[in-house]
């Protein structure tokens, strides 16, 4: 809606400038014709625009006011032309931007939704079969992400199709298939070197998903689901709204589920404690607006928290 208003304003600016330039140009031509007539009537004119009557050289008729008027019109014409050119450039820039964002939000879909569902399901099952700790995790993350999404306002929803978020949630950890088993299933804490390998999974997963043309546009959610609002996440240390919306939603859903799940290196916490921790990390780890939506969803019971292992 806002971009439509901006486009209309730009178009109106261009039209007004065009009309104003044309009118001014006509006025200028008319003005030139008047001066020419005066020159025909009078026999001599000096360069400053001071015109003398031949019959009575004692009588000086100053038409020097014509000169500043003339330059004012030229200047006005010039300003109008510059504003018009800027308007055209602005309109072109908006068109390009809209085209890029449309290509980001719309898949070059060639597969049916059913076909995509099957591909996505087989991919995330591959991770769950490899890592018992993530069993059920991907489905819960997708479910929490959608519950958060449903609390967002319409303008945000227009930027992100609901089904794209669902696919990104189901595939966010797909890159874990490339992590060696002895690291992925290690009992106890990881060494710094092992942790560096684990940190590659968002990049690996996004690169994998980009190979599927109909899913390539959701790879941003996968690549950036471990970024933090304060810029201290990984892999690219993006900050604030530099992080794609999909990544910001998945970060909250993923962390919430990770906290209520038992992992090899720590015990699960209660849903209430995890909820409070997410709220505490608003503005630092998470986008405050997404945390607000998470809060609404939790308070309405829309998250339908299932204890991992209860499925
Ligand atoms: Fe992850």
From TrEMBL:
Q: Look up keyword Transmembrane and say if it applies.
A: yes
- Which GO molecular function entries does the Swiss-Prot or TrEMBL record give? hydrolase activity
Q: What is the protein named? A: Metal-dependent phosphohydrolase
Read off the SMART domains from this record: HDc
One Pfam family here: HD_5
Keyword Transmembrane helix in annotation = yes
Query: Transmembrane ranges?
Result: 70-95
Q: Which residue intervals define the domain HD-GYP in the entry?
A: 112-310
